[in-house]
Amino acid sequence: MTGLWQVSGKNKLTFLQMIRLDISYANNISPWLDIKILLVTVPAIAKMVYEAAASRIAARAGSARAGAGAEGAEGAGSPDR
Q: For residue 26, what is the enclosing H or E element?
């Protein structure tokens, strides 16, 4: 299921902000608000998936660079080279 705070920032909101959005929803409940929330859900999920994927790619790139730097530093002083 979805809700107003889930499409309004989810993990980026404070607990108090989430509660306020839930109260706002309860005070303004209507079929039109439900439709709006449903329509905003798909882009919100797509954004969340994109951000998670970008974060994973950045983390992999960072660890690959760190690993390459460590190998280069170790190999530079090696008497075998």
A: helix 15-27
